[in-house]
């Protein structure tokens, strides 16, 4: 067999890209008859989640003549290993490997695999085929390892270590679902046939889990999506909500692919007249910004609890376009979008707490095991709605509620002509009128009912702008008379007296007014009498 000194290509299958740093424990070859075991090395899997488990199968032996090494099938022995017995495990793995690759020699298998790049889908498919052949023969793994030690290379991650592994070329499969939200399990290739050291300077090899992820983003009204999306909307106004999950890079490796949206609506959000019903939605595949509707029959809708529904694609691989004439492309990188039309109701939360629609996706996470699924982190769309409080006072700053009424209008290109809600009368201890369920935008407040004896206040035009930042909302106004707090607005309106302060009906001031009036009338009459008498004397 041809000697090799170059490093074996590394690969990750099933949403994992193997970064393999090939190493081996070197051992000078002794006399063939003295050989009793292969040299050994450690294999350390980095970047795992705590509790992740892995199983390893040695596919090829790596033998050493004291200067160079070469590969052999597990059922072969050369001068350096002729004293090592061939086991039933050796025979089973060799049969599975040659069957899966269609190659009968270690050199041909090496050439096949080494000719593929470490991140190619072809290599991943070949590794899957080998793994399936091993599982079909129910071949017990050579060793297992669990990630239970803080990772020396990745902060916040854990590592799993295989010890005393006979040198060779290994297939390592993750055997449990990854605990990281949105991650898939990994299939790794590790080659210990090299004279270098691992990162810690030990005889061994380091491999890194690089998990492809399924990310979920939410948005409203086709705005730019985000994991934590925020927007504002007026009560009763329809908005379009969507959640989009992107399929992983190894989607092609799956024979079938499950994709299940779970959507939770808050009390103040409704998509139809019956809040208890699951909203009717549309699903589409998104490629390079182009949406292709998916036929409704591709998914089923089910109500779990009040306000919580699931939308299940049992197998995206069989989904069809809604329009038979359209071509539906679902592949790695395709976004699967769930959309619905909804609106805020009068039960919506007003202010900075917002109304949160949350969604997550359960998805197939292992192309080697169709029953294994993962779940994304929740994506949220928070819808805010605001209130405007109008405080009415007299010109001395005292609350004035006897007859003050206000109407609010939204402003557009043609002026402020659209009334928002109903005319509202100031009332209560603070003589306040409240308009609730507003969004950001331009408004005009008009006093449409003026207290008797007072002049009406001038209309107030203002524009409110919302600023969203990581789960918080801040309102600002372009009019100093409008103050904002806790995602709400306040305007102080003042009514002044018409020509002076008039006394209230039935008060003591009325008596004084009557007395003063009588005195004025009496004085006038006296003046007239005096003037008449003088004229008569003359």
Structure description:
The chain is mostly beta strands. The chain contains 4 helices and 34 strands. It has helices at residues 88-101, 106-114, 121-136, 508-537, and strands spanning 12-13, 19-21, 40-48, 53-64, 69-73, 143-146, 149-150, 158-166, 168-174, 187-191, 204-208, 216-220, 228-232, 238-246, 259-264, 269-270, 282-287, 290-293, 300-305, 308-313, 335-344, 355-364, 373-375, 379-384, 386-394, 405-412, 415-425, 432-438, 441-449, 454-455, 460-469, 472-477, 482-485, 488-497. The strands form 6 sheets. Strands 13, 15, 19, 20, 22, 23 and 24 form a 7-stranded mixed β-sheet that branches. Strands 1, 4, 5, 6, 9 and 10 form a 6-stranded antiparallel β-sheet that branches. The longest helix has 30 residues, at 508-537. It is elongated and about 150 Å long. The protein starts with 11 loop residues before the first strand and ends with a helix.
Features:
elongated, 538 residues, Ig-like_fold, mainly beta, seven-stranded mixed sheet, SpaA isopeptide-forming pilin-related protein, transmembrane, SpaA_PFL_dom_1, membrane, 4 helices, disordered N terminus
Q: For the residues shown, what is the average pLDDT?
A: 83
Q: Poorly predicted ranges (pLDDT <50, ≥5 residues)? A: 1-34, 500-511
Q: What shape does the CA trace take?
A: elongated
Q: Structural class, from secondary structure content?
A: mainly beta
Distance between the termini: 157 Å
Q: Provide the β-strand percentage band.
A: 35-45%
Helix content: 10-25%
> Over the alpha carbons, how many angstroms does the gyration radius reach?
39 Å
The main sheet comes to: 7 strands, mixed
């Amino acid at each position: 067999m041809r000697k090799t000194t170059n490093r074996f290509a590394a690969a990750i299958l099933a949403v994992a890209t193997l970064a393999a740093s090939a190493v081996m424990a070197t051992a000078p070859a002794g006399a063939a008859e003295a050989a009793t075991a292969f040299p050994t090395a450690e294999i350390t899997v980095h970047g795992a989640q705590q509790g992740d488990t892995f199983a390893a199968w040695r596919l090829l032996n790596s033998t050493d003549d004291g200067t160079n090494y070469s590969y052999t099938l597990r059922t072969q022995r050369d001068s350096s290993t002729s004293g090592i017995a061939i086991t039933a495990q050796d025979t089973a793995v060799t049969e599975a490997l040659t069957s899966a690759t269609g190659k009968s020699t270690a050199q041909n298998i090496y050439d096949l695999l080494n000719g593929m790049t470490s991140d190619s889908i072809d290599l991943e498919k070949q590794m899957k085929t080998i793994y399936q052949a091993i599982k079909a023969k129910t071949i017990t793994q050579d060793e297992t390892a669990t990630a239970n030690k803080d990772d020396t290379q990745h902060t916040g991650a854990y590592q799993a270590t295989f010890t005393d592994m006979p040198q060779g070329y290994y297939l390592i499969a993750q055997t449990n679902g990854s605990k990281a939200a949105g991650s898939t399990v990994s299939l790794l290739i590790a080659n210990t046939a090299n004279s270098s050291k691992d990162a810690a300077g030990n005889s061994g090899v380091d491999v890194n889990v690089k998990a492809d992820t399924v990310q979920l983003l939410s948005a409203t009204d086709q705005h730019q999506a985000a994991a934590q999306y925020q927007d504002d909307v007026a009560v009763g106004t329809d908005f379009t909500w969507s959640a989009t999950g992107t399929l992983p890079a190894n989607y092609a490796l799956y024979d079938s692919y499950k994709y299940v949206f779970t959507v939770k609506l808050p009390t103040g959000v409704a998509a139809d007249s019956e809040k208890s019903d699951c909203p009717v939605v549309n699903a589409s595949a998104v490629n390079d910004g182009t949406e292709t509707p998916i036929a409704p029959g591709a998914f089923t809708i089910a109500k779990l609890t009040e306000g919580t529904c699931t939308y299940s694609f049992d197998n995206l691989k069989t989904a069809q376009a809604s329009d038979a004439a359209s071509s539906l492309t679902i592949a790695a990188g395709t976004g699967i979008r769930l959309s619905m039309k909804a609106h805020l109701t009068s039960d919506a939360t007003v202010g900075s707490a917002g109304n949160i629609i949350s969604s997550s996706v359960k998805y197939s996470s292992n192309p080697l095991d169709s029953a294994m699924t993962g779940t994304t982190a929740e994506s949220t769309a928070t819808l805010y709605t605001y209130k405007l409080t109008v405080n009415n006072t007299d010109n001395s700053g005292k609350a004035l509620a006897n007859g003050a009424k206000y109407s609010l209008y939204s402003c557009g290109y043609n002026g402020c002509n659209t009334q928002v809600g109903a005319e509202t009368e100031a009332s209560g201890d603070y003589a306040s009128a409240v308009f609730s369920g507003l969004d950001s935008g331009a408004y005009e407040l008009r006093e449409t009912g003026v207290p008797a004896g007072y002049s009406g206040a001038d209309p107030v035009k203002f524009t409110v702008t919302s600023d969203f930042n990581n789960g918080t909302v801040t309102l600002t106004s372009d009019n100093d008379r409008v103050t904002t707090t806790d995602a709400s607005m306040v305007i102080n309106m003042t009514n002044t007296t018409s020509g002076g302060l008039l006394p209230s009906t039935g008060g003591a001031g009325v008596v004084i007014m009557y007395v003063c009036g009588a005195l004025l009338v009496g004085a006038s009459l006296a003046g007239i009498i005096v003037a008449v008498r003088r004229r008569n004397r003359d």
